[in-house]
Amino acid sequence: MVFSTGALLLMFLTLLGGARNSRPLNEIYFLQVDTSNIPGAPDLSRWTYWQLCAVVNGKSQCGSSVPDYPFDPPSHETFDTDTNIPAAFIGTNHYYLTSRFSFPFLLIALFFGVVSLFTGFLAMCTRIGGYVSSLVAWIALIFQIISTCLITAVYVEGRNKFSANGQTAKLGAKAFAFMWTAVACLLIACVCYCMGGSVGRKERGYSGREHRRRGFFSSARRPSSVRSNKETAP
């Protein structure tokens, strides 16, 4: 349950990064790029799940929040221009679709992660609760891995394209550290829930049959003196 709670905290921080202009949310982003040579763009731009944010004194300053904000520099939702935009972003939906698919997968992972946390209370009382929590945590882990891989792939590729175009770009260390650490925490939680379900398992029925069999054969092997006393008794 501790690892599940830690994973959920990191996932929520990543999800809400950029949603508000206050710490620590204004320090969480996926990609920062020098966009000073792009018409109408801020000097430094940061992409989050909610908005393209300008950078002021090292902190994100975001406008109105838009859920599942896409990574698509030339689109009307971002810069609305092709000037000084890397050619790899022009005329393709690859970055737009990949970045947007990550958001719903993260929401699904969060849902099952919360369910596994609540079923974890049952795991403290029954073994079946441990197995149920493990199953739900595995589902959360699968969707978290998909979301993390998608968002990592699209922004690493985007960073490389901007860098090749002569624009300084760097990944947001906190956002990706949170996402991948959440994967590790969920994996450990899954294993621990399974171990919790298997601890204390006893085959009581089998041991009972063993006792009955031992009782039957032990009666057949009674000492001859006892049997002879019974035969001579009136």
TrEMBL record:
Transcription: is it a keyword of this entry?
A: no
Tell me which GO cellular component terms the UniProt record holds.
cell cortex; membrane raft; plasma membrane
The positions making up the signal sequence are: 1-21
Gene Ontology terms describing biological process: cortical actin cytoskeleton organization; endocytosis; fungal-type cell wall organization; septin cytoskeleton organization
- Which keywords does UniProt give here? Membrane, Signal, Transmembrane, Transmembrane helix
Give the matching InterPro entries: SUR7/Rim9-like_fungi
Give the stretches traversing the membrane.
Answer: 101-123, 135-156, 176-196
- Put simply, this protein is called SUR7-domain-containing protein
Q: Which organism's genome codes for this protein?
A: Aspergillus heteromorphus CBS 117.55
